[in-house]
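Why does this matter for the project? Reviewers at the last site visit asked to see concrete outputs rather than summary tables. In response, this paragraph embeds two records directly. Each consists of the residue sequence and, immediately after it, the corresponding structure tokens. Nothing has been edited or filtered.
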Amino acid sequence: QLQLVESGGGLVQPGGSLRLSCAASGFRLTYYAMGWFRQAPGKEREGVSCISSSDGSTYYADSVKGRFTISRDNAKNTVFLQMNDLKPEDTGVYYCAAGRITVQNMCVNSNYYTMDYWGKGTLVTVSS
């Protein structure tokens, strides 16, 4: 099977941390840009953070800069999203995606470009 599987979501209090993982099976992530997206209840999906396949270039949405860090481990065929100082507005379903496109196009203009693979999502709830 060719798929991406997210894990690491859950319930956390404001100010807490979570680390999301996205593991690929059936294909190698080495030559794909990878991204994390989220969709909050009643809102449109937005690009959270993306990382390139080659030079390590990254993108972060303004709302998460300084709090989230994206990374990848090609040997483990996995991409991560470390989320610190979580806020209630970070609540939503987080999806990972893989595509052979630039970081800018993946995270900023994702609605105009087709991703090669999408995960099914993992729910993050930030609440006291």
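We now turn to the second protein, recorded in exactly the same manner.
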Amino acid sequence: QVQLVESGGGLVHAGGSLRLSCVASGTFFSVYHMAWYRQCPGKEREMVASIAVDGTTSYGDSVKGRFTISRDNAKTTLYLQMNSLQPEDTAVYYCNAEIIILPNKNDYWGQGTQVTVAS
């Protein structure tokens, strides 16, 4: 009934940029908090950036100043603009969203999109 689909991943050289998108589709009342997570090779999943309904954002220390999270509530779409990419940013990036299907609130995850940064 609800699906999160990420796109925009790929291969980029160090210093390059990518923009990830995550579209929430299906039947639901609204999308609340949204976030990007990543799983780097051999490491635990970590939160990259998050954004509340009102636009309040937070970032992991390793991406501050380089990544920008945004959302289009009308399109129920989440974005992550990634600049100055470095090899250590290589990971599978996952979209996470709190979605209201009345009267319940549930967490949903996308399938992930691979970002590979070559040195």
